[in-house]
Amino acid sequence: MTIYLEFPKGFLWGGATAANQCEGAYNVDGRGLANVDVVPIGEDRFSIITGQKKMYQFEEGYLYPAKEAIDFYHRYKEDIALFAEMGFKTFRMSIGWSRIFPKGDELEPNEAGLQFYENVFKECHKYGIEPLVTITHFDCPMHLIEHYGGWRNRKLIEFYERLVTVLFTRYKGLVKYWLTFNEINMILHAPFMGAGIYIEEHEDANQIKYQSAHHELVASALATKIAHEIAPENKVGCMLAAGQFYPNTCNPKDVWASLQEDRENYFFIDVQARGEYPNYAKKKFEKLGLNIEMTEEDLILLKEHTVDFVSFSYYSSRVVSTDPENVEQTEGNVFASVKNPYLKASEWGWQIDPLGLRITLNAIWDRYQKPMFIVENGLGAIDTPDENGYIVDDYRIDYLRDHIIAMNQAINEDGVELIGYTTWGCIDLVAASTGEMSKRYGFIYVDRNNDGTGTFKRTKKKSFDWYKKVIATNGTDVN
C-alpha cells in the first residue's frame, strides 16, 4: 500500500453541484424561468445550447430534466448530511439567478429565494462545511434573454451588479469563497447555455460572443470590487473549463495550433487574473474585424480588481492537428478534440488523462502564480446497482485516485499552490452537456432516470466510503 505525502493543512476537500442540475423546483417560491430550464434532453439539446436552434419556452414533445432535476430544493438537508458524513470541508454550489430576481431586472429581490440559500448555507455550517458559491453557473433569466438579448447587452452588467450586491450583503459571514462565472470560456462554444445568447443567421457570431464576453469580464471585475468592499475577507475566483491542448505531432504547425487553442481558453483568465487584454487577443480582434466596445472605466475596473484565485474544471486533455486527413475525432464533448491513441476514454468519449491534470496545474501556476482551486473533476459513467441496490464503482475510484495522485505530485513535487478540490457531481445530477441522468458522477446514487421516472431515493456507492477515507487522511491514503 502506497502512502502519499499529505496535502496542505486546511486543504478544502469536497464536492460540486450546480443549481440548474440539481435543485429542480423550477417554478416554486417565485422563481422565474431561466435559459437552463428550457434546454431539453435529446438530439436537439446540443443545437440549442450552442445557440443554433431557438427554444425560449417549453415545447410539446420534449422532456426538460431541469424542471425537477434531483429535487435538491426539498432534500438539501438529507444531501448535506451525507456530504458531512463523507467529511466534506467545502461544498461547491451555485445560485439560481431567477430565484433571487425572477425576471432579472427587478429592483427588489425575491425574499423566498434569498431565504432558501441562507438555509442551505446555515445547514453547511452546522457541519463545518465551507460553502463555495458560483454566482452564475450558466443561469440567465429568460426575461433578460427575451427583452435584452442576454449578455450581448451591456445592461446585464447593471443587473448582475444588483444581484451580487444583494448576495454579498445578505450572506456576509456565511459565504467567503465566491466564483463569478462558471466556465466563462464556454461562451465561445455554447453561447446560449453560457450567456443566454442566440445568434441570428445574419449576425457576426464572433462579434457577439466577444462583446458578450467583455460584458461578463467587466461584471466579474465589478463583483470582485463589491465583494472586497462589503467583506474584505471574501475571496473571489474566476472559473475556466481547463485542459491543455497537445499537438498531434511535433510538426511545428501542430505545436503552433495547440498554443493558439490554449490561448483561446486562457484569454478570459488572462483578463481576470492579470487585469488587461493580452496583445494576442487585441490582434485577433483586429484580424477578425471586430469592434469590441469598451470604456476607459471598464479597463480601469479590469486592472484594479483582479481575482484572488483561479479555479477550473478538468476532465480531460485535448489534442489538435492541422492535418485534416487521418485524424479521428473524439465524441461526446462540447470541445472537439483529435483522439489521443495513448489514452483510454470514458463511455462518453472523454479521454482519461491524470498526468494531463498535473500538466494543466503547472501551466496555470506558471502563467498566473495565483492560488488554484480544482472545482470540477470526475468520471461520468453508467452505474448499475447489484441485487441489493449497491453500486460497486471501482472505475470511478480508479479515475479519481489517479487524478488525486497527480494533484499531490503537482503540490509536493512541483510546488504549485492548490487550495482545494471538489469532485463534480458529488451526488448524481443532470448532465449539462447531454441532459442525461444516466451519465452519473456521484458518490451518492439518485434513483432518477432519463425519462423522468424514479423515486429520488439516495443510496451510497462504494466510492462514498473511499472518498471519506481520502478526506480523513488528507490525501495520504487513496488506496
Summary tags:
two-stranded parallel ribbon; alpha/beta; single chain; 6-phospho-beta-glucosidase; 479 residues; globular; 15 helices; GH_1_N_CS; GH; TIM Barrel; 8-stranded parallel barrel
How would you describe this structure to a colleague?
The protein is 39% helix and 13% strand. α3 (72-86) runs parallel beside α5 (111-126), α9 (205-230) crosses α12 (296-304) and α13 (354-368) packs parallel to α14. The chain starts with 11 loop residues before the first strand and ends in a 7-residue tail after the last helix. α14 links the parallel β9 (372-376) and β10 (418-424). The mean pLDDT is 96. The chain is an alpha/beta fold and 479 residues long. Strands 1-2-3-4-5-7-9-10 form an eight-stranded parallel barrel, surrounded by five helices. A two-stranded parallel ribbon has the order 6-8. The chain is globular and about 60 Å long.
